[in-house]
Design a protein that fits this description.
By secondary structure, the chain is α+β, with helices and mostly antiparallel strands. The chain contains 6 helices and 13 strands. Strands 2-3-4-1-5-8 form a 6-stranded mixed sheet. The chain has a 5-stranded mixed sheet with strand order 10-9-11-12-13, covered by helices on one side. A two-stranded antiparallel sheet has the order 6-7. β9, α6 and β10 form a beta-alpha-beta unit. The radius of gyration is 17 Å and the shape is globular.
């Protein structure tokens, strides 16, 4: 694989991810769950063919606030409802270097010698956490079964676009503009009362118009109905 592509996006949710029930009600199918020992977080993931959505929450406040983890701002991001931090992360994959200056994050759950390049601009918790994934394969190429059936049962295939809205008064970092220039995301116009949102456009196998899923509200936009179950 060459170039850069979207690997996954995350959003911080409440502990044990009650929001997963909302996604289930929308017709999405949970793919896998994982703990992150030493980072103090856990997740539940919803895989599409080319990328996945990760719901992330804190399981150990001491670990997520520890010196080895704290620079990521995960503790602050998890508390976004109270402190105005940005709840989102955007991970790229590919053979090319990250399209922004980075530092090497080495959480304890990764194998020795593996690190995650994290954008320096993400030191500001009002910006999304931008980073490079250690993995290089799409979910439809995973060999370990974690991706499951992805979202084929409801006729959803790929995450085709991202639209990010920052909080009013927050200026997009140059790194975010780099992702716009690469076609990874678009930045939405902000109203005076704007709150951070991330909208995933998801293509349909029947060729219909993309579905648009808004985070963190976990809602289909534009009055979309629950996808038809195609089992």
């Amino acid at each position: 694989m060459t170039g850069l592509a979207l690997c996954h996006v995350f959003v911080f949710v409440e502990p044990e991810a009650p929001e997963a029930r909302q996604l289930d009600d929308l017709g999405l199918c949970e793919s896998c769950r994982r703990d992150h020992p030493g980072q103090g977080t856990a997740n539940v993931c919803y895989c599409f063919d080319n990328a996945y959505l990760e719901l992330l929450w804190v399981t150990d406040q001491a670990a997520v606030s520890s010196p080895i983890i704290s620079r990521t701002g995960l503790a602050e991001r998890a508390d976004w409802r109270n402190n105005g931090a940005n709840a989102f992360g955007i991970a790229l994959r590919g053979d090319n270097p990250a399209p922004y200056p980075t530092w090497d994050y080495t959480p304890p759950y990764l194998p020795d010698g593996v690190s995650i390049p994290v954008a320096l601009s993400s030191d500001d918790p009002t910006q999304p956490l931008l980073f490079m994934s250690p993995g290089n394969a799409r979910p439809d190429q995973w060999k370990d079964g974690r991706a499951g059936e992805r979202q084929r049962a409801v006729g959803l295939t790929e995450i085709s676009a991202l639209e990010l809205t920052l909080a009013h008064g927050v200026t997009p970092s140059p790194d975010l503009q780099n992702l716009v220039d690469l076609g990874i995301l678009t930045l939405a116009d902000r109203e005076p009362d704007a709150k951070p949102t991330l909208v995933l456009s998801i293509s349909q196998s029947n060729g219909g118009p993309d579905r648009r899923l808004e985070l963190p509200t976990m809602k289909w936009l534009e009055g979309a109905e629950k996808p038809e179950n195609r089992r």
